[in-house]
Design goal:
six-stranded antiparallel β-sheet, 2 helices, alpha+beta, single chain, 6 strands
Length: 132
């Protein structure tokens, strides 16, 4: 599946002082705030998203349209240390995700799903990383 949309929920969000967040802002157009069904955990200084079937489990983030999706996704795969060339199981996997934009419109976008156990990690119950 190909898409030029990327949903971010942590260190890549606008206003976060990370070089990769600045790279995203410089190479993509902000579409809007969005949310997905899932649970957010504090891994270290960054979050991890786990998918959930529970409709009360919501993670909030931002949706971007990548200007050069192939190149940018390759960069973000390297940043998230997932995909080709990384030992399995990787900490994150990139997957297409159903989400809802503020205002109610449905969409699908790439995002990075946390792929390691979360038993010892604190949950971010609000679903908002910047509120942690």
């Amino acid at each position: 599946m190909t898409s030029d949309l990327l949903f971010v929920y942590g260190t890549l969000m606008r206003g976060y002082a990370h070089p990769m967040a600045r790279m995203l802002s410089a190479n993509a157009d902000f579409v809007g705030e969005a949310r997905c069904r899932g649970r957010l955990y504090l891994v270290k200084h960054y979050p991890g998203l786990l998918l959930s079937d529970d409709p009360t489990d919501i993670v909030f983030g931002e949706l971007f349209r990548l200007r050069q999706p192939t190149e940018m996704l390759r960069e973000f795969d390297m940043y998230e240390a997932c995909g080709e060339g990384f030992a399995e199981p990787t900490q994150y996997v990139r997957r297409m995700l159903a989400l809802t934009l503020d205002g109610g419109a449905a969409s699908e976008a790439w995002t990075y799903i946390y792929n390691w156990p979360v038993d010892a990690l604190p949950r971010i119950a609000s679903g908002r990383f910047l509120d942690k």
